[in-house]
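Sequence, please.
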C-alpha cells in the first residue's frame, strides 16, 4: 500500500508540472537578464529590489553586463583584484628552506642550499670535485658575495663565473675569472687571495664535475702600511697541474704541480714555453725574455741537480725581436 501511494503522488506532481509548463509555453523566465524594453530601446538599469547592495561598492571592476550576474557568478567587489602579470611568489617558502649541512664530525652547521663547492681528495681517482647548483645561476645570476666585519677587520668572499679581479696591472688583471676571491682588510693590512679551477666547463650547473687531472690557478697579494705615506706589498700568481691519485697534501700541488696521467704515459721529449704580447696592436711594451739570466734546472729523483748551461742543455729561441 505504501509503494502504491508514493507512485500516485509522483504522478500527480509530474502531471501538474507538465500542465504548468504547457501553460507557459515552455519558455524559461530570464527576469531582467535580457534587459527591460522601453519602446525601441533596451535598458539594463537595475529595477527596484533586484539591485544587490554589495555590488555597488566602490571597486576597480567595471560593469558591462546586467547586475544580476553578481548573484549568478558570485562576484565580490570587496575582494582583491589582481592585475599583475605574474602572481606573487616568496623568495623561499617557509617550509622549503633547504637541507641541513654538517661538518666532518657530524655537527649541524647550517640549513640552506648548496650553491657552490670545490674540493680535492687525495689519493683518489676523480678526487677533484666542482659543483654549482641551479640556484647559483637563477637566484644569484652567477655572483655570490658574503661579507662581514668585526672590530676593525673586514672581509668579503666572492664567488662568480665572470669575476673581474686585479692584483696589479702587470701581475694579474683578469676580466672573466671563474673562481673564488677572498678579501680581508684592517686599518694597516690588506690581503687578497684568488683561486680558480681552469679546467672544466664554465656553464655547467647542478651536477658534480669530477676529474683526476685538473689545472688550477692560485694567487694573492698582501700589503702593509708603513708610516702614513708608504705602503709595502708582495704578490704572486701560479698555474699548475694536479693529479688526485698522488698521495700528497692538496695544498702542496698548488706550488709545485704534478704531471697528469697522459703526460706520464710517454717520456717527455720537448717543453715549449710561449711568451706573447696581449696587446700587440699598440706597438709598445710586450713580453721580454733575458737569456743571460735564464737557465734550465733539472732535479732527478735521487736528489741530483744539474743546470742546463753546465751540461750544454740550453733552450732554442724562435721568433721575437732581439734587444
Amino acid at each position: 500500500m505504501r509503494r502504491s501511494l508514493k507512485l500516485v503522488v509522483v504522478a500527480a506532481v509530474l502531471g501538474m508540472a507538465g500542465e504548468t509548463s504547457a501553460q507557459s509555453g515552455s519558455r524559461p523566465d530570464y527576469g531582467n537578464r535580457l534587459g527591460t524594453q522601453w519602446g525601441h530601446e533596451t535598458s539594463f538599469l537595475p529595477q527596484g529590489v533586484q539591485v544587490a547592495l554589495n555590488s555597488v561598492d566602490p571597486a576597480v571592476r567595471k560593469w558591462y553586463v546586467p547586475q544580476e550576474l553578481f548573484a549568478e557568478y558570485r562576484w565580490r567587489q570587496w575582494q582583491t583584484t589582481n592585475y599583475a602579470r605574474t602572481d606573487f611568489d616568496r623568495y623561499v617558502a617557509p617550509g622549503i628552506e633547504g637541507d641541513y649541512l654538517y661538518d666532518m664530525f657530524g655537527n649541524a652547521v647550517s640549513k640552506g642550499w648548496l650553491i657552490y663547492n670545490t674540493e680535492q681528495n687525495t689519493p683518489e681517482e676523480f678526487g677533484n670535485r666542482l659543483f654549482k647548483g641551479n640556484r647559483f645561476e637563477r637566484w644569484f645570476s652567477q655572483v655570490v658575495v658574503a661579507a662581514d666585519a668585526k672590530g676593525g677587520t673586514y672581509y668579503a668572499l666572492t664567488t662568480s663565473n665572470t669575476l673581474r679581479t686585479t692584483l696589479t696591472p702587470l701581475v694579474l688583471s683578469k676580466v672573466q675569472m671563474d673562481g673564488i676571491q677572498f678579501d680581508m682588510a684592517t686599518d694597516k693590512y690588506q690581503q687578497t687571495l684568488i683561486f680558480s679551477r681552469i679546467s672544466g666547463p664554465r656553464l655547467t650547473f647542478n651536477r658534480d664535475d669530477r676529474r683526476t687531472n685538473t689545472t688550477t690557478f692560485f694567487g694573492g697579494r698582501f700589503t702593509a702600511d708603513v708610516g702614513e705615506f708608504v705602503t709595502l706589498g708582495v704578490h704572486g700568481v701560479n698555474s699548475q697541474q694536479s693529479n688526485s691519485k698522488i698521495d700528497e697534501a692538496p695544498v702542496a700541488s698548488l706550488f709545485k704541480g704534478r704531471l697528469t696521467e697522459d703526460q706520464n704515459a710517454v717520456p717527455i721529449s720537448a717543453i715549449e714555453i710561449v711568451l706573447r704580447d696581449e696587446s700587440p696592436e699598440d706597438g709598445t711594451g710586450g713580453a721580454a725574455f733575458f737569456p743571460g739570466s735564464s737557465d734550465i734546472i733539472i732535479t732527478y729523483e735521487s736528489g741530483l741537480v744539474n743546470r742546463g748551461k753546465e751540461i750544454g742543455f740550453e733552450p732554442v729561441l724562435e721568433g721575437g725581436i732581439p734587444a
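The chain is about 15% helix and 35% strand.
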